[in-house]
Specification:
Distance between the termini: 39 Å
Bound molecules: pyridoxal-5'-phosphate
Strand content: 5-15%
Number of strands: 10
Strand order of the largest sheet: 1-2-10-7-8-9
Number of helices: 12
CATH class of the largest domain: Alpha Beta
Shape: globular
Structural class: alpha/beta
């Protein structure tokens, strides 16, 4: 299917305009040389950390679809429950500000003594922030806050109940893949393989693009969590998204390549390989990843490059999905001193 036709299907899904597209695609010759000498592939980095609101990241792309659905209910307040250091929370507040909506966050965790990272940005962006000790309590607080807003004459929308998250993420990254393919073509490059941090939602989009364009590239995603059976999750999201787009297409678990071996100890805890990858990107290319998501995905790509999986004729693309504000809560990783702030993601 050609790109215009795919875009016509995407245009059937209501959206609001939040960010400047395309985001940059930059080449990373120093990184390629550091990892593979002169025999390595061409490496590109897709800078989706530079989506243009609230310090950027992948969630702003799916918020264009999710918040269109939200706006259809004509709310004046968005209430959302997320993790203490959530990238998604920061981007949601930025997006809601752009749309003139008030945001109330209910974050899981205790209020830290020192406010840093994404949480600091939540405050700077003007969110009303509440803290919930656990998921169960968080849900009760979302409902209680919605009732309170309603009692005060407001129109609340609980974003956790918005059904679009999975499909919006997949459609957003289907579109991003088309964007990347065009940028690479302009550079005279045909991609061999994309690497991205995903536990299924974004990956579903890249795989849809692979199937719909019929182009011969691989999609290697790396999960930051062991929480999901990613192949079945990604395939289910891809199929639901194809249906929402009005496309006759089936994705199966066998179509999903997702590496679960780079999580390290667990979600939210930096791994040695991930930390090394963050340093490499920073010192070779001046690109700041994060230790929770993109560093672990980059660790997967770095390991595969060192194994010699790609040669001179190959083109490898790393999709930077954002998350760098988390670095401000991990000062000890980079400076070697005791942590100052709570940083559970
Ligand atoms: C920086 C970053 N990268 C990657 C992801 C994973 O995205 P998904 O699993 O939705 O594809 C997230 C989402 O939590 C993120 O914040």
């Amino acid at each position: 299917m050609n790109f215009d036709l795919i875009r016509e299907h995407i245009a059937r899904i209501p959206r609001v305009d939040l960010i400047v597209k395309p985001t940059p695609m930059t080449s990373a010759p120093n990184l390629a040389r550091a990892l593979c000498g002169d025999e390595g592939p061409q490496i590109f980095i897709k800078r989706d950390d530079l989506t243009s609101l609230a310090l950027g990241g992948n969630k702003l792309r799916n918020l264009e679809f999710r918040l269109a659905r939200t706006m259809a209910e004509n709310p004046d307040t968005v209430i959302v429950g997320l993790d203490l250091q959530s990238n998604s929370a920061r981007q949601t507040v930025g997006a809601c500000n752009k749309l003139g909506l008030r945001t109330i966050l209910v974050l899981e965790g205790a209020k830290p003594n020192v406010i840093q990272g994404n949480l600091l940005m939540d405050y700077l962006l003007g969110a009303e922030v509440h803290f919930a000790p656990n998921r169960h309590e968080q849900r009760s607080m979302l409902d209680a806050l919605a009732a309170q807003v309603r009692a005060e004459g407001g129109r609340p929308h609980i974003l956790n109940d918005n059904p679009m998250f999975d499909i919006a993420s997949a459609v957003a990254y289907l579109e991003t893949t088309l964007e990347m393919l065009e940028q690479l073509e302009a550079e005279g490059a045909e991609p061999t393989c994309f690497y991205m941090s995903s536990s299924g939602k974004g990956q579903a989009g890249l795989v849809l693009a692979q199937k719909l364009t019929g182009l011969d590239f691989a999609v290697h995603c790396v999960t930051a969590t062991n929480e999901f059976d990613v192949p079945s999750r990604a395939a289910a999201i891809a199929n639901a998204s194809a249906e929402a787009l009005g496309l006759d297409l089936r994705v199966s678990e066998a179509d999903i390549v997702n590496f679960g071996g780079f999580v390290g100890e667990r979600y939210g805890v930096p791994s040695d390989a991930g930390t090394e990858a963050v340093r490499l990107f920073a010192r070779q290319e001046g690109v700041i990843l994060d230790p929770v998501y993109t560093g672990k995905a980059a660790a997967g790509m770095v390991a595969h490059l060192r194994e010699g999986r790609f040669g001179k004729e190959d083109v490898v693309v790393f999709v930077h999905t954002g998350g760098s504000p988390a670095n401000f809560t991990w000062g000890d990783l980079w400076v070697g001193e005791a942590p100052l702030v709570a940083r559970a993601i």
